[in-house]
Amino acid sequence: MKTAVALALAAGLLLIVGAEPVARRVAAQSAAVSSATPNLTGIWHRKGPLNGKPNPPMAPTNRALGYEKAYENALSPTYDCVPIPVPALMNDDYDFQITQQPDRVIIRYEKMDVVRTVWLDGHGHPKPGAYDYSIQGHSIGRYDGGRLVVETTKFTPDSRGFNSNRFVPATAMKKVTETYWREGDVLKMQTVSVDPLVLKQPFHWDYEYTLRKEELTPYDCDPEDSRFGAQFHKSIYPPDN
Questions:
Q1: Residue ranges covered by each domain of the chain
Q2: Are 217 and 110 in contact (CB under 8 A)?
Q3: What kind and span of H or E run contains 162?
Q4: For residues 63 and 73, what is the distance between their CA atoms, to the nearest angstrom?
Q5: Residue 59: which H helix or E strand, with range?
Q6: pLDDT of 96-135, one tens digit each?
Q7: CA dist., res. 37 & res. 24, Å (int)
Q8: 176 - beta bridge partners?
Q9: Rounded (10°) CA dihedral 84, 89, 91, 96
Q10: How far is the C-alpha of 82 from the C-alpha of 40, rounded, in Å?
Q11: Rg (alpha carbons) of the chain, rounded to whole number
């Protein structure tokens, strides 16, 4: 009887001693996951090009250059309050807000009141269907080494596909990869866009941002007021004789 009790006590002691390293490992793993998830939540205001280096010029194909040359600015969907797709959405100096949730990241832009949802990997969100194309595409994100990496595909073709100041079109083959990370109160962003039909090489658009205390300003685009600006393009709206 005494031997059985002694064996039971010894087994219990081993369980307690063995549990401590396991608990430490679990805690360490939880800490590692937490440290790999950066705090990007906030409202961000453009500071300037990433690390002060100007972004390289776009390299359109001859096909894209021909389209750009023939395109009339007055035909831009922007005049009808149609939102601009990423990465062109980021070209203008408007603020945006990042909100992080357990299964998604919400990005709200002042520019045209655009709201994007980035679905995080590993949470069972269904993949888009064969015909599920949209202006902002379908975004999937993951945290990697303290950074948020977002990959977006399934864009509808758009004449303003890459830069709001140029009418180099984007096709449904466009893919945009964004990377966000934080250094103190500075948010840094890199974007790489590819589209084999209209770009000779990847298009980079990299910037950094500072925290802003004020709320986002509603854009409240009015189609009638927006279309008013198109009348100044005389090739479409010639003056009365």
A1: 42-213+226-232
A2: yes
A3: none
A4: 18
A5: none
A6: 999 999 999 999 999 999 999 999 999 999 999 999 999 9
A7: 20
A8: 152, 193
A9: 140
A10: 28
A11: 25
